[in-house]
């Protein structure tokens, strides 16, 4: 079983748990609810990117996948000022990202969420009228390149795979789902 297949199998319950708890209909029911959802995503990504940046196996690969700036753009489009965004709460404590394998396992969750983001983007556009330029850049993060970005991530993950690394990768993905669930689904 490849590491990608193993991750999909072993994190299925955590994936389903966060998807059920998100209550997306409520979270995109109004401009304010949507803004609050983006604030929670910002708090997660800001903290996660700062932690992961120092431990990534390939800096350029990681930099192209950062989402915080897209969230800043969206929050600005929704009326938050830069000084307000800087003061937003961040997700603490994070899961331990002790090395490249842990970062890759965690990235599996973060990168996987971009696939679901494309579906969410369509719902946000239909319900609220936001586009990538007017408040939905985060959910449209890779635009038409979403499949290529996922494929390139999978290639890097497969290259990093080994019997020793795989357990760490899966453990990190599971912990990331737990932290993301607790952060995104708690009432701020």
TrEMBL record:
In Gene Ontology terms, what is a biological process of this protein? heme oxidation
Q: Which domain of life is it from?
A: Bacteria
GO MF, one example:
heme oxygenase (decyclizing) activity
Q: Which InterPro entries match?
A: Haem_Oase-like, Haem_Oase-like_multi-hlx
Q: Name it.
A: Heme oxygenase
Protein species of origin: Microvirga lupini
